[in-house]
Design a protein that fits this description.
Helix content: 10-25%
Strand order of the largest sheet: 2-9-12-11-10-13
CATH topology of the largest domain: Elongation Factor Tu (Ef-tu), domain 3
CATH class of the largest domain: Mainly Beta
Distance between the termini: 19 Å
CATH superfamily of the largest domain: Efflux pump adaptor protein, beta barrel domain
Number of strands: 19
Oligomer: single chain
Number of domains: 4
Number of helices: 2
Order of helices and strands: EEEEEHHEEEEEEEEEEEEEE
Radius of gyration: 36 Å
Strand content: 35-45%
Largest sheet: 6 strands, antiparallel, barrel
């Protein structure tokens, strides 16, 4: 708040000390807790689609199947060869008991059996790759294909996102590193849902700081019942690190910039310049660490026309300036 102005007199304010919520603010982007893009490992033609756009599917649900005519034939052939090899191996076991064949012959028969068992596993794996299943419970995206579409290996087909819980990634200055820890509460708000607040908890801190901006990446997680929040949304992040008592805040407009910031105080009706050491800034105010105390009267406007020792007259007591306690 600013004091009243009389004639051409500068505006002044009286500093007060109050409780101060030590907090950090940032902007972040929401991401799904789990997100995957499903792509086929083999080219083929789509024969069935097992989901509807935007629906929630269970883990393991069959989402899409490609034509497996060739793979099924290879699997049938592998199983037939396996059955033949198993029969031959059992017959050789009986012959060895009667000493009609050597142990080496039975060993060779066993090796052939192992080869055929592996061939069946390979054929089954090839057939399984023609079916795309949901790796976890989540919401599928909008499909861009139909039954009969020929798709190529590695082509993007389906997205699945778990939005029951979300992650929010944001960055904080390196000066906050020593005060950050897993489990801390983070408040979120979104322009898409005005008036609503959401709570997340810090899940992880990036072990490396950004060498360019000297900031640390923070990741928090929040529950998303009902799916009201969606991945990609922009959110405002607020993290309260604690509360300090009797903090003196100064209007930013009162600070005279320079190598050593200063303010004009009013003492016995005259202007006195005072160097100040500043702290955190918030809402057009800045914390005063050294230089002035609560009760001091400072010039908040018109100081560029003043010189040290200039007389200042106020028609009414200067308005107090402080920072309210956190809500």
């Amino acid at each position: 708040m600013r004091g009243k102005r009389t004639g051409r007199q500068p505006e002044t304010a009286t500093l007060v000390a109050s409780d101060f919520a030590d907090e950090l603010s940032a902007v972040g982007s929401l991401k799904a807790a789990e997100s995957v893009v499903l792509r086929p490992e083999t080219s083929g033609r789509v024969v069935s689609i097992g989901f509807r756009d935007g629906e929630v599917v269970s883990k393991g649900a069959l989402l899409l199947a490609l034509d497996t005519t060739v793979q099924d034939a290879e699997l049938a052939q592998a199983r037939a060869n396996l059955a033949l090899t198993q029969s031959s191996y059992r017959r050789n076991q009986e012959l060895l008991e009667k000493k009609f064949i050597s142990p080496q012959a039975l060993e060779a028969s066993g090796a052939a059996l192992a080869v055929q068992q592996a061939a069946v596993q390979l054929a089954e794996a090839k057939a399984a790759k023609m079916r795309l299943r949901a790796p976890f419970r989540g919401m599928v995206g909008l499909r861009e294909l139909s039954v009969g579409t020929y798709v190529k290996e590695g082509e993007t087909l389906i997205t699945v996102d778990d939005i029951a819980s979300l992650r929010v990634d944001f960055r904080l200055p390196e000066s906050a590193l020593g005060r950050l820890a897993r489990g801390q509460v983070v408040s979120l708000s979104s322009d898409a849902l005005p008036g609503e607040a959401f709570t997340a908890r810090v899940e992880a801190l990036d072990p490396q700081l950004d060498p360019n901006g000297r900031s640390i990446a923070v990741r928090a997680r929040l529950d998303n019942p009902g799916g009201r929040l969606r991945p990609g949304m922009f959110v405002r992040v607020r993290m309260v690190l604690g509360e300090r008592k009797q903090v003196v805040m100064l209007p930013e407009a009162a600070v005279i910039p320079g190598q050593k910031p200063s303010v004009y105080t009013v003492v016995d009706g005259k202007v006195v310049p005072v160097s100040v050491r500043l702290g955190v800034r918030r809402d057009a105010q800045v914390e005063v660490l050294e230089g002035v105390q609560a009760g001091a009267v400072v010039v908040t406007a018109g100081q560029m026309k003043l010189k040290p020792g200039a007389a200042v007259t106020t028609a009414a007591p200067a308005a107090p300036v402080g920072m309210a306690a956190s809500k």
